[in-house]
Each structure stands twice: as structure tokens, then as C-alpha cells.
Amino acid sequence: VLENQDLQDSIKPQKVEFHSLNFNTTLHWQPGWAREARDARYFVQYKVYGQSTWQNKDECWGISSHVCDLTQETSDIQEPYYSRVRAALAGVYSNWSLSCRFTPWRETMIGPPVVTVVHSNKSIMVKLQAPRSPYKRKRGSKIPMTNYYDLLYQVFIINNLLDEQHRVLVYEGKDKVIKIQDLRPGVSYCIVAKMYVPMLDHSSAYSSRQCTVL
What we know:
Immunoglobulin-like, disulfide bond, mainly beta, secreted, Interferon/interleukin_rcp_dom, 214 residues, single chain, signal, 5-stranded antiparallel sheet
């Protein structure tokens, strides 16, 4: 019995955490500390905070992976959720390991916008597209993150002549197309952008650089 107890403890999943980007939400965990734990199988359950019964996640029942996609299970984005994972090895089941509480609307990370740059001789036209959620409209298109939050675009310009690391904020607002004027011909400029959520004081990462020479 003691050996079973030891095995139970040593295969118990560690660090059960939600990771979420634009409401694409996965549960991650690490295997137990026993060397044999790498051969364990995992079982995932989830529930809305306050519910008494746990739901099995069928696609993550008896899996060898350390990650489980719960995007559809957490689609009511204002609700707080919990998840839990247990491991099994050689007919022995560990206890459940519980995640922290996770509320998608508060905790999902918002990704950067997609940036397209068109230049003329003294100006740059910047087109911005907000990231999209995994949830779909009836017609099938993915719902943009701007439907869920009051989001602002922040656009920065980098003058490569001066300093590649120095980003200057040139625009903050909701326009999807902006024009940056009075730039110097023959100079290489790069544009990066972020999404900003004033209500939560969150920023996305920077978009990839879009560079052009006027």
C-alpha cells in the first residue's frame, strides 16, 4: 500500500495553469517528479466556479500530452473557471491537481494587430487589423477582439537612421487606417503597433516590424 501511496504522490501533475491568447485557451501542466511519470496518462476535468459537478474533457481523457485545449469549454468569457488534472500509471491514480481560478475576459492575453504599410514619397499609410478570437459569427467569420473590449491601437515609428530601439508613439485611437506625414525621403522607417485595453490597463506585445524606405 505504501508503494502505491508513493507512486500516487510522485506522479501527481504539477503547476496546472491556464494559458490564453485572444481567448484561445489551453491548460498546461508538468509531470510529477518520479522518473516513471513521463509514461503517465492524464485526465482533465473542468467546471464553472460555483458548480458542484466536474465535467470530463473527453479529448483529454487518458492522454500522454501535458496540454489540453479548453477554448470551447471556456467560451462564456465572463465566467470564472477551474480545471483539474490527475495522472495514472500502472493502474495507480494520483490525486487531482487543481488550477487557479481563470476568468477569460480578465486574463486572456490580447495579441498584437496585423500591420500593413504603404508608402508614398513623404508619408506612410498604416493599415491595422485587430486580432481575432476563435469564436465565430453565424456566417462563419471569426469575431474580432474589438467586439469584446474597448481597444485602442497604438502605433509607433522607428527611424532607423537615429536608433533602431527608439520607438515613438505617433498614434493612439480606434482608426484602422492612419497616415503618418512629413517624413524624410530616403530614410528607412519601421512601424510597430500594439493593442491597448484602457479598462484593464493591458497592452499586447508589439506587432512584427513593417519597414519601408521613402
